Amino acid sequence: MKLCLQIGLLAGLSAVLLPADASYTQVTKFTGGTAVEMAKKMANMPLIGRMGGGAMREAFEDQHYDVYVKGNKMARLGGMISTIYDLDAGTITTINNTKQTYTTMTFDEMREQIERMQQRMNRKHSGGGNLQFDTKVEKTGQARTIDGQNATETLITMTAKGDSESGSGQMVVKTHAWLVQLSAPTRELVDFSRRLGEKFAYAYGSSPMMGAAAGGLGAAMKEAFSQDGYPVETDVEVSGVSGPMGGGDPSAPFMQMETQSSHFATGAVDAAKFSVPAGYKEEKRRH
After folding, report:
1. Are 128 and 111 in contact (CB under 8 A)?
2. How would you class 66 by CB atoms within 10 Å of its CB: exposed for 0-12, middle for 13-18, buried for 19 or more?
3. Model's pTM, two decimal places?
4. d(CA 118, CA 106)
5. H or E element: which one contains 223?
6. Rounded to 5 degrees, what angle do the CA atoms 256, 262, 267 make?
7. pLDDT confidence tier of residue 101, bands split at 50, 70 and 90
8. Which of 128, 139, 114, 219 minimizes the C-alpha distance to 172?
């Protein structure tokens, strides 16, 4: 009887300690900024707009994702691009659903690729993990109901230390984060996000197309997830960054984006969500 009780207690403790599967949906909208405006203009050009099957035009349209977490894996499944993070293997698998291809890179390889891209764009003083910020966090006292939950606003202002672009301006990232109390699924998601951020500094802004803004976006989202609660909505504005081709007003908003998360749930997630779809071909990376 005593042995059975001990086994029961151990089983209960294991159930508490083991991470639960979690899922939610996310929508990202690029609402403005010089980078978005430039990309949309280029996408409307007859020749450039057709490159990559219209990928540039689609890249700045509203992005819808189904997100799943299972242990040390996260899958962000989108219509055009899906991404699988594997903390144990230290890899990122990027799946192109349009071309039915995929590439797998280690965190180090992805970090090197982003830094090389930023160097080509003359971002010598704002590259990735070396970018440091002075951070100000303010509870605004504003509240609203989002998806049936009471959400309170936290304003996070991050100012890059020193000149972010060799004197052309100082990067400032302002994030309006609407936080709700943690629940079972969001607690799992926050825990995974923190672990991912520790292993891969570019987790929240890993697109080389964002140039200098990638570091700022990544730092802002990492700070948002460090707050007391879960950010179900974030409105982010990056300024102090000139366009990839140079020029422009660095004080004008470079990028404005809004992210909304909803339909949080726990429950067993099919392991197939973290695999490349059958028939997709591996695409050779260019070094």
Report:
1. yes
2. middle
3. 0.76
4. 18
5. helix 213-224
6. 140
7. very high
8. 219
Element (H, E) at 17: helix 2-17
Structural tokens at position 162? 């020193």
Cα dist. 249→29, 144, 253 in Å?
Answer: 23, 34, 9
Q: What gap in Å lies between CA 35 and CA 242, rounded to an integer?
A: 9
Helices and strands in the chain: count of H runs, count of E runs: 7, 12
In sequence order, the β-bridge partners of residue 70 are: 73
Is residue 117 within a helix (H) or strand (E), and if so which, with residue range? helix 107-120
pLDDT tens, residue by residue, 155-209? 999 888 764 444 445 788 899 999 999 999 999 998 998 888 887 765 555 454 5
CA-wise closest residue to 20 among 222, 255, 188: 188
What secondary structure letter does DSSP report for 174? E
